[in-house]
Design brief:
With 220 residues, this protein is mainly α. It contains eleven helices and two strands; from the N terminus they run αααββαααααααα. A two-stranded antiparallel ribbon has the order 1-2.
């Protein structure tokens, strides 16, 4: 428990630092809709696959938490996440752009009155032990769709292959072009083998959540 509390405290400090701009910049979803041309070519195509650092479906971002999207884009902008394409895109965005795009995707594809289960389905096999070991619900919520802090991602229903690549990226150290620098997730991911990370990703992906890919034309 003490270890988890220290991890959580470290992440909170990091999040507050990286998101200090959010106190001054308020996102406008309508403005954001005019700024997503660079997003829809990947995130607006159902089943679209990226090829770096390996082939996987790009993440579903419609319905994702606004504050988390801002956190992720700023991490790419600062190089804490090293995906070359995403870093190049994020570097071109102002704080206002990030806030607007985040507001847009947080509301994109939302269904009024939709409800989610309070808890995830009962894990089978070794998954229960893996979830306990990683303390996954401590941050992402009992249903993986209602994180305890808005700067943490919703992960229920996310593409399994993307989740697997994301988890692996937290294990990477010293690579110039890919990997993620996050003390908490790095500590968690490094506890598991690649086979265990894939098992976790498959389970979380099977859960019901808000995330979706809303088809959008690449030509506007």
């Amino acid at each position: 428990m003490k270890k988890f509390v220290s991890f959580a405290f470290a992440l909170t400090v990091s999040t507050l630092s990286s998101l200090s701009f959010a106190q001054d910049v308020k996102g406008d979803a309508n403005a954001g809709e005019k700024k997503i041309a660079m997003c829809i070519g990947c995130h607006g195509i159902v089943g679209y696959q990226a090829s770096f650092p390996e082939v996987y479906k790009v993440p579903k971002i419609s319905g994702q938490g606004e504050k988390y999207i801002s956190t992720a884009l700023n991490a790419y902008k600062k190089g804490e996440r090293k995906h070359p394409t995403m870093r190049g895109i994020a570097a071109s965005l102002t704080d206002q752009d990030i806030a607007d795009i985040s507001a847009y995707y947080a509301n994109h594809g939302k269904v009024q009155g939709a409800t989610l289960p309070d808890k995830a389905t009962e894990p089978k096999g070794d998954v229960a032990a893996l979830l306990t070991k990683g303390a996954c619900t401590s941050c992402h919520g009992e249903n993986f769709a209602k994180p305890i802090d808005p700067s943490y991602p919703k992960i229920a229903g996310q593409n399994a292959d993307y989740l697997y690549v994301a988890l692996k990226s937290y294990k990477v150290e010293g690579a110039a072009t890919w990997g993620r620098g996050n003390g908490v997730m790095g500590g968690v991911a490094k506890q598991f083998s690649l086979a265990e990370l894939k098992e976790l990703a498959n389970y979380v992906s099977s859960q019901q959540g808000d995330l979706k890919t809303v088809p959008q034309s690449k030509f506007r």
